[in-house]
UniProtKB/TrEMBL annotation:
Protein name: tRNA (guanine-N(7)-)-methyltransferase
Region (Disordered): 1-26
PROSITE patterns membership: SAM_MT_TRMB (PS51625)
Reaction catalysis annotation: guanosine(46) in tRNA + S-adenosyl-L-methionine = N(7)-methylguanosine(46) in tRNA + S-adenosyl-L-homocysteine
Pfam families per the UniProt record, alphabetical: Methyltransf_4
Natural source organism: Paenacidovorax caeni
Pathway(s) it belongs to: tRNA modification; N(7)-methylguanine-tRNA biosynthesis
Keywords: Methyltransferase, S-adenosyl-L-methionine, Transferase, tRNA processing
Low complexity bias (residue ranges): 15-26
Presence of keyword tRNA processing: yes
GO cellular component: tRNA methyltransferase complex
Organism lineage string: Bacteria, Pseudomonadati, Pseudomonadota, Betaproteobacteria, Burkholderiales
Biased segments, Polar residues type: 1-11
Length: 265
């Protein structure tokens, strides 16, 4: 899908006075000020997508609630939990769920036709291991996913917010990355991809600066086999655009905390 560059509403990126420790939502604030990484785009839900909402919605859509998610109940089984932020029309999401049947995929998107499109793919392919939250992923992270609850995070082609004055709306910034890292289990991974070189450079800098994460590659990573080339990406590649993957792994806290200095006697 093509990124949205619609006009911006003011967004609250100023940390609240009572900011909580990195990776935790401030106590008692149900909707903390956070990155507004999207604008709700107008877009028509097709008849086929509306039918998919009716047919698949009751089973595969999860309600947003400001309470920790019981993933085993939501998916009907215990399995590694992968969060995807912003799946667009769900082309890559459906492919990955099919090639990794042993994992549970919790997928957030705010664009209604995109949610309908993924529900349609779920029905067409008999996919069982996806659940969709049609909600701001930042609020999902803050309120539904406790620290250490995720085995992986996918953020593919997040809106690049090209203009300098809009860069603050990018998802990959230190506060959100700290939250993501805190929600990963040690050994879990964060996989980002972008086709916008300045954003790729920002990703490398921000992910590289997060103390809880370690790069799995020397710089950008080779494209993992599970991530397909989507129509959108193929079009970009034909036009000569680059694509950059980044795969970072959550460190074990034990490894990242230096031993205490010996005390002088
Ligand atoms: C440029 S599109 C990329 C979609 C898809 N990952 C792909 O590769 O084609 C980015 C998507 O992220 C969604 N998005 C942005 N911020 C989000 C957020 N905080 N929560 C949920 N979805 C978000 C947008 O609605 C949009 O559909």
């Amino acid at each position: 899908m093509t990124p949205s560059f619609a006009s911006q509403a003011a967004c609250g990126t100023t940390p609240p006075q009572d900011a909580a420790p990195a990776g935790q939502a401030p106590a008692g604030i149900p909707y903390p000020k956070a990155i507004k990484s999207f604008v709700r785009r107008a877009g028509r839900t097709t008849a086929a997508q509306a039918k998919a909402f009716a047919d698949q919605g009751p089973r595969f859509l999860l309600p947003y609630s400001a309470a920790p998610l019981d993933a085993a109940t939501a998916f009907g089984r215990e399995a590694p939990l992968i969060l995807e932020i912003g799946f667009g029309m769900g082309e890559a999401t459906a492919h990955i769920a099919r090639v990794r049947p042993g994992d549970n995929f919790l997928c957030c998107e705010v664009h209604e036709p995109g949610v309908g499109a993924l529900l349609k793919r779920i029905g067409e392919h008999g996919i069982e291991n996806i659940r969709i939250l049609q909600h701001d992923a930042v609020e999902v992270l803050d309120h539904m996913l406790p620290p250490g609850s995720l085995d992986g995070v996918h953020i593919f082609f997040p809106d690049p917010w090209h203009k300098k004055k809009h860069n603050k709306r990018r998802l990959i910034q230190p506060p959100l990355v700290a939250k993501l890292a805190a929600r990963l289990k040690p050994g879990g991974y964060l996989h980002c991809a972008t086709d916008w070189q300045p954003y790729a450079e920002q990703m490398l800098e921000v992910l590289g600066g997060e103390p809880l994460l370690a790069n799995t590659a020397d710089g950008y990573a080779p494209q993992p086999a599970y991530r397909p080339l989507t129509k959108f990406e193929n079009r970009g590649l034909r036009l000569g655009h680059g694509v950059w993957d980044l795969v970072f792994m959550r460190r074990d806290l034990e490894d990242s905390i230096p031993p205490p200095e010996p005390t002088a006697r």
